[in-house]
Task: structure prediction
Amino acid sequence: MATEILSGKVHVNTTINGESTDFLAEPRESLLEVLRETLGLTGAKEGCNDGNCGACNVIMDGRLVNSCCVLAVEAGGADVTTIEGIAGPSGLHPLQEKFLEHAALQCGVCTPGFLVSAKAMLDENPDPTEDEVRWWLAGNLCRCTGYDKIVRAVLDAAASMRGEG
Amino acid sequence: MHAISYAAPTTVADAVSILAEHGANARMLAGGTDLIVQVREKLRDTTVFVDAKHIPDLTQLTVNADGSATLGAAVPCHQIYGDDAIVAQYPALVDACRIIGSTGIQGRASVGGNLCNSGPAGDTIPPLIVHGAVANIAGANGERTLAVEDFCTGPSRNVLGDDELLVSLTLPKPADGSGSHYLRFIPRNEMDIAEVGAGAAVTLDGDTITAARVSIGAVAPTPLFVAAAGEALIGQTAGEAAYEVAANIARDAASPINDMRGTIAHRKHLSFVLTQRALRGAVARARGMEVGHGH
Ligand SMILES: Cc1cc2nc3c(=O)[nH]c(=O)nc-3n(C[C@H](O)[C@H](O)[C@H](O)COP(=O)(O)OP(=O)(O)OC[C@H]3O[C@@H](n4cnc5c(N)ncnc54)[C@H](O)[C@@H]3O)c2cc1C
Ligand code: FES
Ligand code: FES
Result:
């Protein structure tokens, strides 16, 4: 059977932050546009819209991706975690707590992207070195804090998640 | 972005028939880190996106019974450096996969997409060349194979016809005593495109080099296979004197341009220096030593 070529509004079913979610999207719409404009999940930000800033980062099927560089239709059947899914039922994620404690944000536009990226790193590597944190987060740009506080917050969160602090 | 349509075929044959029907309007979509950005920025007018990621032949990464590896065209960088067997056999390719863009980009960006985008600075192309990789291509007229050094024909241009797609890359098993390394120079610390990149693969018998391949990127309209640099190393003792001879050949082969990332003179100089360093790294790895991927 020949493959159907989809255009106009396409029905997509995906799992977002653990919940089965249906939406309609045109093939040209990015996952970021659908998250923000169709689903009202405005935590992921549009900084550059070309893959350079990381403000739109989400975790898709266990991998960190720039949602501005993913078509929403590609998310069919995928498991997506956004910043809205990071906190647990009992409160903030340790990364979120440590960002507050270390004052690792000023305007906050980059913060959701940093938190999602850092979570993806800690899921893979619970005990990163400072060097590993800096390289993993190299695709997240912040125009305000100068990165140092962000790196300290991530290292501190990792330590507390390992029960060391 | 202008309106597009999207297809997710599950077989190579189906993908080929869509490409054949829509001609130059259709393109394969792997990680989209080039294609989506280029269409959004109106650098391409593609209207039919053909998703590569539902076709098993394009998404598998396997080490075959004969020790060679088959790398599906759409396998992302993240999966490549997460595979211990691939890391052990093809360290130059792994070096490149670890420095493309950022972690988020590496979650999607594929080696096949990097090759088919055919940028002169594409980081995975010199490593593929030094590993002796072969491109497995399918199209309306059947299948063909081609050495990767013959794949790119100019900036953003390659041998693929409108009805053709890259299915996979075959990487031969490295001989015992082999090592490889890729590195690049960028004006920033990360998140930039190579001013020059250099890859080398060597095979040692004791201290004697018995096989070597060298390739440099961003110094010509396509990544260059510098066959003469590798040949000059054969029979030589691994060491600085030999590397210098090969690096001089690489510098002479480079025909770079001036642009915002560097001048002709600087790129020529880098072709020499990075070839030396790639050879040092390749030899160290052939001897079982650890060499950082240099980010
Ligand atoms: C922020 C950022 C940083 C980047 N940094 C780097 C870098 O450091 N080094 C570097 O080399 N590149 C870099 N890139 C470019 C890009 O990420 C790479 O070229 C990547 O490997 C492309 O792979 P992809 O899977 O995303 O390809 P796509 O965007 O999906 O495809 C790329 C091209 O290849 C074609 N194509 C894809 N698969 C096939 C196939 N199977 N058969 C035929 N044609 C096919 C597509 O139609 C398209 O023209 C960067 C991009 C961004 C956005
Ligand atoms: S908005 Fe996606 S990387 Fe900047
Ligand atoms: S806090 Fe403003 S961009 Fe990072």
